[in-house]
Predict the 3D structure of the following.
Amino acid sequence: PMGAADPNPKRYELSKAEMEMLEEQAGMEADLEEEEDANDDDDSSASPDTNEASETTGVKLEAVDISTLPADLRMDDYSEDEDDAQAEGRLGNILIGKETELMGTNLDRNGMPVEDIDEEKGQRERERDGAEDSSDDDDDDDDIDNDANDSDDDLADVPDTREFMPVDVRGLEAMGLSAAGLGGAMNEEDDDDDASDLEDTNLRPDDAMVVVAKTDEDFASLEVHVYESRTGNLFVHHDIPLPSFPLCLAHGDINPDGGAGNFIAVGSFSPSIEVWNLDVLSALEPVAILGGEDTSGADELMRINMARAAAGKKLKKKKVGQQGSGLRPGSHKDAVMALSWNKVHRQVLASGSADKTVKVWDITQAGNPSACAATFVHHKDKVQSVAWHPSEGTILATGSFDRTVSLVDARSNDGKNYRKATLPADCEAIAWDPFESQYLSAASEDGTITCWDVRKFDQKLWSFVAHEYGGVSDLAYN
């Protein structure tokens, strides 16, 4: 129904079992840390004489005369800093070798780049340098030595003759490619993606939801469709994988903790009833399971093995005949074929099964033996349909393959307080009239639809053939 779903659904929600397991794991880790701290304290409180003896114990090496070493192993014949500087200079010249070719420069005798000069200019400069050298040889010799020693600093004086195109900052910003423009564009794109995701997942007040049970070969799932009344768009909002093929659905709004929400009960070929939270997009497991296989032994074994694994002990194995190999107390013994969630007593759920029984469940007691409140065995064949009265929360209508429709007073736990009406064929579906709640209709396998006034249930109100070829598989009022 409209307004039942959370307008801001969650991506994931931890179940109660997962939270308990995480708490136990955190407790075990805390215990292990305490044990490690205690062991560290014991080690630190050991005898100090032992520690001093262990610290002072060592091997004294004999001193070696450096003059007796070979020449290639002596470190005092040359300067380490000068060698490193020359190695770095040679490495830099190798790295910029290709670049100097493009720049139009040559390398001098020290391997440093110098500018290219033509032959005539070089000749004039050499003559002038020769004249200067003849006037002051000693000074030039000192300068040459200083220049050779400072050759590493000449690289900073080499002019950069490369040409670069000026950057058109305005043009790049206009295309969103500049540093500021690119960052802004990326932020805007991320914001747009987040807004788009929220728009796809969040629900509007006028949106309607349709839950579909779907099977595809060996895969079964629930598909939650959203219908946008503004645009007439219908799309799959999210889906939930199911462990077994679904046979029936029922919507409710009470969770096992008694709080309100948006939930769907699923009946399948297995004897269990799974209750899923539709407000969680990536639900991994149901919030509650009614009946089905008893997994308490396996759960307890898993908890024990977690504790043993944390302590470094050997894991236990499940023994044959161990508790948990059967069904939970009050569970159906065959496939669940029909479900109906009570709209008056909202924690109550009714189910019909191929084991010929009708059961009434209390959602708030899920996981406890008292979850099954009552079991009715008034039918002689598979129970195909169940439906609670829309306003009288204690009246339950049931339809079976024994060609009968029954009215049961759910207050009688023994199931003996009921009334029956016959059908011309197996019952396929039943429905209460939402406008005249005293009328109950049933569809049968031969294509006939029959209506009764429950105040006079011994005679039918009207009947007609809706489908001449084939039966009627479902029935619903607008």
Remarks:
- The chain has a mean pLDDT of 76.
- The first strand starts at residue 105 and ends at 107.
- Residues 110 and 148 are 8 Å apart (CA to CA).
- The radius of gyration is 44 Å.
